[in-house]
Structures are given as C-alpha cells and as structure tokens.
Amino acid sequence: MKILLVEDIEYKRDKVIGLLESISADVSVDVAKSYVSAVNSATSKTYDLIILDMSLPTYDKGPNENGGRFRVYGGKDIIRKLMRGKEHPVVVVLTQHTTFGEIGEQKKY
C-alpha cells in the first residue's frame, strides 16, 4: 500500500509511520512536511491513502527557514486542490482541532 503522510512534526510522523509499519509490512510511506510539498507529492504520484494533518507550514522548515506563513487549515486547502483533479484519493485527516469547518458551518467532533 502506497501512503502519503503529511505531517510537519517529526515526533507525530514517527509515531504514525511506526503504527502503519506494525499493521502491515507491505506499506510504503512517503512524507511531506508542508503544504507545498504535500501538493507536489499528491499531484505528481498516485497514493492508495493520504494521511493529512490539518495545520501546516507553507514550505518545508529548515535550519534557517521558518516554513513561511502557517496555514491553520492547510489540509483543507490540499483537499480542495485534490478534488479539482481527475482522481480523488482516499484522505484521512489527522488533527488536534476540536471543530472543523468555516465559522457558522463548524461541526464539533
């Protein structure tokens, strides 16, 4: 199974990858750490599953880079972009948000 994991926090990435690998040995995980790298990966390759963090930096962070503007709902923007394409991959949103949606349309989970 080919999976794209979109998560900017290393500790969380490691935990999710460990869980996926413990479930199946037939898992290949690509990692994206920002909005831009997620969009590039998701639109240039085919994945069986995308596990997506909701809040992401715009760009990958580096030793001397802060990742640009932080996107509180960057994951939602990625989903919108993917829905415009021909293929609609299965997406699981992994977030610590307690509500999801625009003001007035929020659903509490």
From TrEMBL:
Pfam families: Response_reg. InterPro entries: CheY-like_superfamily (IPR011006), Sig_transdc_resp-reg_receiver (IPR001789). Coiled coil: none annotated. One of its GO terms (biological process) is phosphorelay signal transduction system. Keywords: Phosphoprotein. Residues 2-109 form the Response regulatory domain. It comes from the Bacteria. The modification 4-aspartylphosphate is found at D53. This is Response regulator. It comes from Escherichia coli.
